[in-house]
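User: Good morning. I'm curious how FE2/S2 (inorganic) cluster would be positioned relative to this chain. Could you predict the structure with it bound?
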Amino acid sequence: MNNNNKSLIDKLEAEKKIRHEEWITLLSTYTNEDRTYAAQKARAVADSIYGKSIFIRGIVEFSNVCKNNCYYCGIRAGNTCIERYQLSRDEIMDCCKAGYEYGFRTFVLQSGEDLSYSCEDICDIVSDIKKLYPDCAVTLSIGEKSREEYAAYKAAGADRYLLRHETADEEHYKKLHPDEMSWANRMRCLRDLKELGFQTGCGIMVGSPYQTVECIAEDMEFMGDFKPEMIGIGPFLPHKDTPFRDMPKGSYELTLFLLSLSRLMLPRVLLPATTALGTINPRGREEGVLAGANVIMPNLSPTEVRKNYMLYDNKICTGDTSAACRGCIEARMERIGYRVEVTRGDYLC
Ligand code: SAM
Ligand code: FES
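Assistant: Good morning! Here's the predicted structure, ligand included:
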């Protein structure tokens, strides 16, 4: 084991931060042993706070219509090869009804940036869910909106909001997005969400094109300062109908390492073992949990539409039913000594 890296991992755990140059050293020289060391520590930290519980969130991908053109994303506006769909309010409620029966107590409503759902439409859906299932949390993941819209969602009862910052480096952001999109606005959104009292999630794709160790160091420092309640970290995976189709996928091992370091830096953070991690490696979700993750987000979308919410090639679970995913996750977690909890699974302050 690299003793310097071991001390940096210990320092991160003890002080919750390390210096910029220390991040660069750790991220550019870590070995598999360092990664295992960090994973064991991260798992112990997660166990000490959340025990053997894994929280599940049912994700309803309610529309794949998107006005944006992020270069990495399979549902980008410029992709003319996919069939677009938009679920109605009733269809979304049907997904939640099934999800409630399967033991989900958090519903994540995710979509492209689809302007045909007005602020009022979203608020109505959120308040319907909260009225019918008062014991459930609602998470929104519908992109960049105005502060007023976020405030309206909050007033309607939304509890959490996921908006990955994608990169803390503005120059890197410009290489991933067209000129109409702005890093400053994404950061403004995150600040507004937190100020409005959402449990707020940010995060990155590991190995996104043009990402450097410097970028990841900035991401970790940004997250250490911002203190999100949730962090979404998954590998970048190329999609065949995007400008990044020929770019290499992100590293599985680095993703696991960053999950562990995130847990050590922000011990209480809600940290999913993402679908992308399960796509890059069939044991990704189990190994993600063993590296410190404590959330899994199985799909609750109707099976017919899942293949059209392909953010990247070969996304898992697109042919499965919600019942199959629910059972699958429970069995996967049991095999590694964890149990899926029927609870909202809030951030523990
Ligand atoms: N429109 C919302 C937004 O922008 O936050 C939510 C949906 S968006 C598709 C959700 C996340 O998917 C993005 O934040 C991005 O990090 C991830 N994603 C998109 N394309 C990806 C790819 N090719 N590989 C891995 N993750 C990807
Ligand atoms: Fe969908 Fe395993 S989670 S089949």
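Residues 80 and 343 are 40 Å apart (CA to CA). Residues 72-73, 110, 112-113, 141-143, 163-164, 166, 205, 234, 236-237, 239, 276, 311-312 surround S-adenosylmethionine (ligand 1) (CB under 6 Å).
Let me know if you'd like a different ligand tried.
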